[in-house]
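[Automated response] Your request has been received and processed.

Submitted sequence:
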Amino acid sequence: MNKPKTNKVNVFVVGAPKAGTTTLFDILAQSKDIILPVAKEPNYFCTDYHERWELYKKTDAKEIKKFPKSYKPGLYHSARTYDLQKYEKMFFSDSDKYTLIDFSTTYLSSTTAPKLIFNYNPNAKIIMMLRDPLARAWSHYCMDLAIGYHKKKFIDCLKEEQFAIDNNKDYPYSYIRDSNYFKSFQLYSSIFEKKNILLVDFDKFIKNQKFEVQNISNFIGIDSFKYKLVKNTNSSRAMRFENLRWIYTYLLRSIINKISLSKRIKVIGKNIIFKNTHFPKPDDKITKKFFEKCKIM
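Generated structure:
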């Protein structure tokens, strides 16, 4: 019989998507005081997202059925985790001397995650990495476009999502919801003490990593540590060979999600399939109006 786990996950980097969470994950992985999960984003507490994924089938989150024999943080990027035993198994540690951190960006706009996290660990610390709302949404949209989730225009996605929000309906993409930091902060701060919530500005984090990492280390209560500076590791990409998009969308992505690959191989594969690109940031009045009330920093 397995012994009950005594060391709970005590830090949650809840997002936002496309705001530097993967870069922070790669930095904190270099600390001897921290244990990170096998899947960077376990996605256990976002039960509303579980329902959305089942409904729309629009996710790369993998249901992990076989765990590696040894500790390999970030072996998978995103997972669908439905039970507590599997969730805690991701961290490979029962020792209280480590800080365990969950990096699920779905928790930011999830309506179920804040309360479920609190019920699991009322003393948990929450980190929100925030980016200009429009720039974040645009980067998120470009990522979905590159992956092949859809070929819709950005403004059409915003209109459809806003219609769904206004009519209390779901929508498969979260360009507005994941940028609505004010609403997310209100929800978390109504449940957790404000001293347990840290807001991190994406632009400051990218420009001054050493200062921001030290600030984050102080917040979560770990010693300073030496680390290699990490570039933004989840930047916007475009398909390198557009005429081969269908091969990736319908074949390669499915295969990749079913097998375990090292992070090095994944990076090489991404560089072959995608190229870094700087998409033009939309600045017309129509798109800006969707994000006017989102900022909290």
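Summary generated for your ticket: The longest helix spans residues 133-147. The CA atoms of residues 3 and 16 lie 35 Å apart.
If you did not submit this request, please reply to this message.
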